[in-house]
Design brief:
Layout: E1 4-10, H1 22-25, H2 30-43, E2 46-52, H3 56-69, E3 72-76, H4 85-93, E4 98-102, E5 124-127, H5 132-152
Parallel strand pairs: 1-2, 1-3, 3-4, 4-5
Helix pairs in contact: 2-5, 3-4
Bound molecules: ligand CA2.
Ligand CA2 binds near residues 21, 25, 78, 79 and 81.
Length: about 150
């Protein structure tokens, strides 16, 4: 059997990380985030497939792919967090665990960021820890996968 795999999915505008708004989103690039998650996952024996898109339907496609190709998903859905029934339905339709991560503390920002359409169908949520939140989300995701495996065997 091959290595266990996680999907790292980043939503709209996160390709701008490190290029704009460092006060809110830090100085690290999306590539730095992907490297961080790959390193953290590799230490736990997992490989990572990483995907970023500005398009809602493409994100839906990747969530669906996880059912066959990954053990779980770490996702920053960005602005679609607050609006997307399509992403919520896609997460509901798969059996794999999904952890939602936000770089900023959305609860100290505008009220429209306080609601997540996705949190009720996710296994967990990490927010407000900057880029390091991706590390926490990845470790939490792997712990969940490993403990579910133990429960079922
Ligand atoms: O805090 C987060 O991670 C967010 O998911 C980021 C989203 C925002 O809509 C959510 O409410 C919270 C925005 C991502 C935009 O990313 C940028 C990065 C650098 C420069 C400009 C935008």
């Amino acid at each position: 059997m091959g290595k266990k795999r996680l999907f790292l999915i980043n939503g709209p505008n996160l390709n701008m990380l490190g290029k704009r708004e460092p006060a809110t989103y830090g100085k690290k690039s999306l590539e730095d985030v992907e490297t961080l998650v790959k390193e953290v996952a590799a230490e736990q024996g997992f490989e990572v497939k990483s995907f970023q898109s500005n398009h809602e339907g493409d994100l839906v496609d990747w969530i669906q792919r996880a059912e066959e190709e990954a053990e779980g998903i770490v996702i920053n859905p960005a602005a679609y967090t607050h609006t997307s029934i399509a992403l919520r339905d896609a997460i509901s339709a798969i059996s794999k665990p999904v952890v939602e991560i936000h770089i900023s503390n959305v609860h100290e920002r505008e009220s429209f960021r306080h609601t997540s359409m996705l949190a009720p169908v996710c296994s967990g949520q990490v927010l407000g820890f900057g880029i390091d939140g991706y590390r926490l989300a990845t470790l939490g995701m792997i712990q969940k996968i490993e403990s579910e495996g133990r429960n079922h065997s």
